[in-house]
């Protein structure tokens, strides 16, 4: 039996194409958000989540460095688990309130993809940095004796590595994280592959974990400008500030690359924009 044809092709393909429709991009300047309680609730959630993230993770770093015996305590692996585990917990807790960014690089990547407005993005970044400062400040207050002598959990380029290598590590590490965020929260994937249960915070937390395993020896692992900024402000060391630009430039470049890859390659945004060929919705 011949397939019924419409102006756009087979009717069965038209119906399949309508199974999912991309949501409209967020307005660039949405000043109406400033009048909504949900906006301020999201800012509070981002502040508190980043505070808790920095408190637990930096305290773990200080505890690890204070161990006389490398086999006694959390160890190198435990530090990576602290960062990844806290991201899993916190994203799970606040994803429905603010989206669970807890990272200016994630916010920046989602801004480039027009998932949120510029107003919300800038506000998120400010509150994430404030939360990070408060979190590291609590660590210093609780662990004052060992905090300053053990580096304050601040990020810097490790001995034996160049600034270029450190920048590359931050770019690649953040690319892995932001790429995972896009993939785990892709609403089209959820609609198409609804038979595959995906708990978004889990792969995001694992991404943070594995990136820390790879880059702790190089930079102490930033991949989060708020994390690096909060530790730098409280520790306030010249060497840390000299290297600090790496922990903004690297994550933002990595987030930009991940957003472009997901939106224009995996989601065929470039093909749609150029009109070179019609995207196959089944891919």
TrEMBL record:
Keywords (A to Z) from UniProt: Membrane, Transmembrane, Transmembrane helix, Transport
Entry-linked Pfam families: MIP
Keyword Nucleotide-binding set for record: no
GO cellular component entries: plasma membrane
Source domain of life: Eukaryota
Residues spanning the membrane: 42-64, 76-97, 118-143, 163-182, 194-218, 245-266
PROSITE patterns (alphabetical): MIP (PS00221)
Sequence segments annotated as region (Disordered): 1-21
Membrane topology term: Multi-pass membrane protein
Chief location bin: membrane
Molecular function GO terms recorded: water channel activity
Compartments, record wording: Membrane
Coiled-coil zones: none
Record-stated family: Belongs to the MIP/aquaporin (TC 1.A.8) family. PIP (TC 1.A.8.11) subfamily.
Protein name per UniProt: Uncharacterized protein
Species: Manihot esculenta (Cassava)
């Amino acid at each position: 039996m011949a397939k019924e044809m419409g102006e756009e092709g087979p009717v069965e393909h038209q119906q399949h194409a309508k199974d999912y429709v991309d949501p409209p991009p967020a307005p660039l300047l949405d000043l109406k958000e400033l009048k909504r309680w949900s906006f301020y609730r999201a800012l509070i959630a981002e502040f508190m989540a980043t505070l808790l993230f920095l408190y637990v993770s930096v305290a773990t770093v200080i505890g690890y460095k204070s161990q006389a015996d490398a086999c006694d305590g959390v160890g190198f692996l435990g530090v990576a688990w602290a960062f990844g585990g806290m991201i899993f917990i916190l994203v799970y807790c606040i994803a429905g309130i603010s989206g669970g960014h807890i990272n200016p690089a994630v916010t920046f990547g989602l801004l480039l993809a027009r998932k949120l407005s510029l107003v919300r993005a800038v506000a998120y970044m400010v509150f994430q940095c404030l939360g990070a400062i408060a979190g590291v400040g609590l660590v210093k207050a609780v662990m004052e004796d060992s905090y300053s002598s053990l580096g304050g959990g601040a990020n810097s380029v490790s001995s034996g590595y160049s600034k270029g290598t450190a920048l590359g590590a931050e770019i690649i590490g953040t690319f892995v994280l932001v790429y995972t965020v896009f993939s785990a929260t892709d609403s089209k994937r959820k609609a198409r592959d609804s038979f595959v249960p995906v708990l978004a915070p889990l792969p995001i937390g694992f991404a943070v974990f594995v990136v820390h395993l790879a880059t702790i020896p190089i930079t102490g692992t930033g991949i989060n400008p708020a994390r690096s900024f909060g530790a730098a402000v409280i520790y306030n060391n010249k060497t840390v500030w000299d290297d600090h630009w790496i922990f903004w430039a690297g994550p933002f470049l990595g987030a930009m690359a991940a957003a472009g890859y997901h939106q224009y390659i995996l989601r065929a945004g470039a093909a749609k924009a150029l009109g070179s060929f019609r995207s196959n919705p089944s891919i």
